[in-house]
Amino acid sequence: MTAAVIGAGAWGTALAALLAENGHATTIWAHEPDVADGIARSHENARFLPGVTLPVTLKASFNLDEALAEADVVVAAAPSHVLRAVLAAAAPHVKEGATIVVASKGIERATLALMSDVAAACLPGRPIVAFSGPSFAAEVAAGQPTAIVAASVDADAATRVQQAFRSPSFRVYTHDDVTGVELGGSLKNVMAVATGIADGLQLGFNARAALITRGLAEMQRLATRMGARPATLSGLAGIGDLVLTCTGSLSRNRTIGLEIGRGKTLSEALAGRETVAEGVTTTESAHMLAQREGVDMPIVAAVHRILFERQPARWALVELMGRELRGEED
Asked: Do both 140 and 237 map to the same domain?
């Protein structure tokens, strides 16, 4: 089939390389002209995925119309805060019936919409598939074993995406709980910032395990309030992605937390970074979403206070430990 990937960050590049290696005619669109030129000329995304040799068959373009020409599968991999603008610009060039794969993870700040809802609004009438799970881009690009979820209310669309991406090192499971899969992929980034902060404060492994476990409880609480199934958060897109992002050294969100825990301000931690740490913007969105839905999310609230209300990190975590005692399943 013909595939297009919108967004040439590390994740978009890794997915485009996988599609090309699987024999699909694939073009990646880059917002940055130098990135598109580098992929086309030297078969490397030196800016966002350095050191990885990309398939010679992978094409790159700075023009949306050229990248999207006759694409059967369109992978949306732009950062969550620009996804709506990028898809709105892409819409006139996406053919009817194309399957849209949403690989962006986040919650839109202005509307609190999930990324699949943003894609459906911008590209009406096309089947939408949410793509999420424990998957560092560098390891996918290196051919390391990875398992991920393709979720859609359209079972045929989920199966098409499963078949398009499957490879000896990349296993795709289908799912129909789009809300659960998307919220798992979004909220785990906030929890990764929290665990990074705790690690930066040198609070120990016990604290990390507690934050991951109670973070999962918060994720399930919000997801089920919004119609997801609890079991979804116990799968790859929930606890799988949560554990990876909270413990892996390649996690950008955990790294931001680490630096804040060690004393940096948010602006200092973000300074000079090319790549997006989705957990920062998602913290704002998740905090507002929890308030809208009337869901208690104390870890999200604590991270919000640290990042945006200038509360010292250690004080915020002390407040978490001092909350009123309760049953674990309350």
From this structure: no
Structural domain tally of the chain? 2
Q: How far apart are CA 65 and CA 286, in angstroms?
A: 34
Kindly report, residue by residue over 222-241, the tens digit of the pLDDT: 999 999 999 999 999 999 99
Token couple for 45: 């995304």
Q: Which domain holds residue 26?
A: 2-176
Crossing angle of helices 298-308 and 278-293, in 10° steps, is 130
Mention every residue, 6+ apart, whose C-beta is less than 8 A from residue 15: 5, 75, 77, 103, 140, 165
**Run of H or E residues at 157:** helix 155-165
Q: Are 33 and 165 contained in the same domain? A: yes
What does the alpha-carbon distance between residue 178 and residue 87 come to, in Å, rounded to a whole number? 19
* Other beta carbons less than 10 A from residue 273's beta carbon: 11
Whether 329 is in a domain gets the answer: no
Does residue 328 belong to any structural domain of this protein?
Answer: no
Q: What is the mean pLDDT of the chain?
A: 96
pLDDT at 330 over 80: no
pLDDT in tens, 270-306: 998 888 789 999 999 999 999 999 999 999 999 999 9
Catalytic residues: 188
Q: Is 271 left (phi over 0), alpha (psi -120 to 50) or beta?
A: beta
Claim to verify: residue 134 and residue 24 sit in the same structural domain:
yes
Shared domain for 220 and 290, answered yes or no, is: yes
Mean per-residue pLDDT, 169-193: 98
